[in-house]
Specification:
By secondary structure, this protein is of the alpha+beta class. The protein is 21% helix and 30% strand. The chain has one domain. It binds zinc ion. Zinc ion binds next to loops.
Length: 63
């Protein structure tokens, strides 16, 4: 929408620790920290931890 946002580089302080995501993490953005690594969302946190969401009692992915 705004061209100004494209020209002014935001303060990227890190990248999402989930390699599949790798999203830029900006200063002031709410993130989840795992040790010294940051992830951009709960979904990336789960991926990073190697956890999967399943239906209890059935090893079937809920996704
Ligand atoms: Zn991410």
């Amino acid at each position: 929408m705004s061209k100004v946002l494209d020209m002014v580089a935001p303060d990227v302080i890190d990248y999402c620790a989930n390699e599949e995501c790798g999203a830029e993490i900006y200063f002031g953005q709410p993130v989840t920290k795992i040790g010294n690594e940051l992830v951009c969302s709960g979904k990336c946190l789960i991926k990073k931890l190697g956890a999967v969401t399943v239906i209890a009692g059935r090893e079937v992915s809920a996704e």
